[in-house]
């Protein structure tokens, strides 16, 4: 297959084909509903990850432990791209009581906001049926740190080993990349899953301060309600509605700190 188009095609693109000289030729690229990309620091341009996504599954587990600001980074970027996020907690079969307590306290933050959370063990085939219902009829992408079990979860869903998996390092408790490029797998006629590499720089280098704020949907609920229109939403901001809601227990202090950590990166 070859393409007559200029520019980069990506997984999930919808195209028109023509059969010519015993090969298919891509002739038309349809408009994308959305696009997930990351910076390519070597070529100084964006690297497209996937297009036309209905929802994204942010996968976490206890080992490697969640990098908490990564979760909020993913969620903010997905909302900014108009992609529905869900959260998957993998490896529930191997959690210690301390692991379970920590993960539950973290997930309580997101449950309170209204995010759908699915608890699974890809290795033991626990919770997969419920997850399949959430994926059915959609084009979904799996996101998360290396080592959380994205490829293992996909293998379990497909019922066969079609992607490589690697163990988490015992010394560093970090995963090693097994997926080097995004790949689309067709579950049925209406259901696709895209497996993606770990994306540390995911989706936030190009957004504005206002777009980041809107990506924190629990913050967005109070948009425009601060005493001052140019409120910086900092701990000492006078009349800040966000700070007021943190003190009232309606917004997570962790999310607030993650917001400012990400904000500091995008305004450099």
Describe this entry's structure for a reader.
InterPro entries: G_CP_dom, P-loop_NTPase, Ribosome_biogen_GTPase_RsgA, RsgA_GTPase_dom. Its cofactor is Zn(2+). It comes from Francisella adeliensis. Keywords: Cytoplasm, GTP-binding, Hydrolase, Metal-binding, Nucleotide-binding, Ribosome biogenesis, RNA-binding, rRNA-binding, Zinc. The chain is an alpha/beta fold. The protein has 3 domains: 1-30, no CATH class; 49-195, Rossmann fold (3-Layer(aba) Sandwich); 209-266, Orthogonal Bundle (Ribonucleotide Reductase Protein R1, domain 1). 29% of the residues lie in helices and 22% in strands. The protein is built from 8 helices and 11 strands. Strand 2 and strand 3 form a beta hairpin. It is globular, with a radius of gyration of 20 Å. The model is unreliable at 164-180 (pLDDT under 50).
Concise overview:
This protein has helices at residues 68-80, 97-113, 128-135, 150-158, 209-215, 217-220, 241-247, 253-266, and strands spanning 2-3, 15-20, 23-29, 35-40, 45-51, 55-60, 84-89, 117-119, 139-143, 183-188, 191-195. 29% of the residues lie in helices and 22% in strands.
